[in-house]
Amino acid sequence: MTIGAPTAFIRTSGCPLRCTYCDTPQAFEQGEQMGIDAILAKVAKLECRHVCLTGGEPLAQKDSTKLLERLLDQGYHVVLETNGAMPLDEMPCVENLTISMDIKCPSSGESGKMIFENIEILGPTDQLKFIVSDDADYEYAKEIIAKYEPKCEVIFTPVGGKEMKGLAEKVLKDRLNARVLPQLHKFIWGDEDNR
Ligand code: SF4
User: Fold this and answer.
1) pLDDT 10s digits, 87-119
2) How many angstroms is it from 57 CA to the middle of ligand 1?
3) For 83, which of 61, 91, 108, 175 is 20 to 30 Å away at the CA?
């Protein structure tokens, strides 16, 4: 878990989903073309040990796996944030890669596009993340956990990233083996700045 640790973010453009609460719509089409070497050079200047490859949806870019492998080869710890709708069977299984995969709940409007087989691929150093908007989302997340019994860490985050209390109380009441986490950057930099 790297929350709070200085991290270089690579935000790729493009995403096949359109979640109702998406807070990075600028990633659907904006951005500039960059080659892998140029990205690596920019990351090196930031002098962070951790790199987060996010989007949009990083795996929607055809060379994202090559970029990921180059980052891993250079010794970075990489967190790959992926939306649950992309196959993960070609991901390298190495210690310094953390796959952080969403399962989209019903309020996203995209829950029908999830690839549930991906959950089996996630191991102890990976994360399964539910963005929860309401009771229906929470109950849905509980059903998915009971059905697929993930071996990885399970994370609940409220839509908007800040209103933690109701969600934390539900998780405690239900004795769920899950972490309730905010989107830390929203506390530090506010809603306008999506790092
Ligand atoms: S997967 Fe992420 S980037 Fe894509 S629409 Fe949903 S919230 Fe936005």
Assistant:
1) 998 888 888 999 999 999 999 999 999 999 999
2) 7
3) 175
- Whole-number Å distance, alpha carbon 72 to ligand 1 midpoint, is 25
Give the span between the Cα atoms of 175 and 173, in whole angstroms: 6
Residue 18 Cα to ligand 1 middle (Å): 6
The set of protein residues with a Cβ atom below 6 angstroms from ligand 1 is 15, 17-19, 22, 24, 27, 55-57, 83
**Predicted confidence band of residue 145 (pLDDT cuts 50, 70, 90):** very high
Name the residue of 59, 81, 83 to mutate for ligand 1: max ligand atoms within 8 A of Cβ: 83
**Report field, pTM of the whole predicted structure over 0.90:** yes
Parse the chain into domains and list their residue ranges. Answer: 7-189
Q: Residue 194's pLDDT is what?
A: 54
Give the pair of three-digit tokens for residue 121: 């691929």
The CATH architecture annotation of domain 7-189 reads Alpha-Beta Barrel (3.20)
Its sign, for the CA torsion 90, 54, 50, 159, is: negative
